[in-house]
Amino acid sequence: MPTHFESLLSSLDVSTVLPPEIQFGQALIVDLSRTRPMWQAVGDGNPDEWVLNQMRAIGATMSIGRYNEQRPIYENTEQFEGTPDRDLHIGLDLGVMPGTPLTTPVDATVFSLADHQHQGDYGPTVILRHQEKGLTFFTLYGHLAADTLNKINVGQTLVKGELFGWVGDKSENGGWAPHLHFQIIQDLGEWKDDYPGVTYSNQAEVVLENCPDPNLIIRRDDL
């Protein structure tokens, strides 16, 4: 049964985060979980190239990395060094071209701006604060273009559908293939300009309740 927070998110009148033709267009859903055949198909090759080739084959304009998925891809990054059990992804990864514009799905205040430049981290990061139907919550946008941090200011008000930034490239986004990490957070706790996008599987019950499925806002029918 949906929580009160999930029910509220489902009831919101939202705008798109990405351009509509991308957000609702043809997409390749990529299963990055530990046991999936993709890893055998990639072998010793480049997984980023493998994804791009699969996208071209179906005419996709976006790839999607799933929410609530255990992944092996973090183990060899500086950001996740020494935490092999931290592998549960709690956002949506929306793989698009660098420079793709981002707009706020509902009215917002810019809560924080940061540039987390450890290899494997978020790179330029924005957290927006929302107040809807008596409830406060946050959305996090990771792996952005550095110019985003000059576009907006902490405390600035954004109206639904307003441009606030762009997706970054690999040289500035923490070292990842270009994509948006999009995450919903009910309670930031003591976090200020950051929040984990990957957690420990033994914390799943609590964390997934605090960070529900981002598709409650993205609203694709195939997720």
From TrEMBL:
Pfam families found in the cross-reference section: Peptidase_M23
What GO MF terms are annotated?
A: metalloendopeptidase activity
| Residues in the signal sequence | none
Q: Which InterPro entries match?
A: Cell_wall_metabolism_enzyme, Dup_hybrid_motif, M23ase_b-sheet_dom
Q: Which domain of life is it from?
A: Bacteria
Ranges of residues in domain M23ase beta-sheet core: 89-186
The molecule here is called Peptidase M23
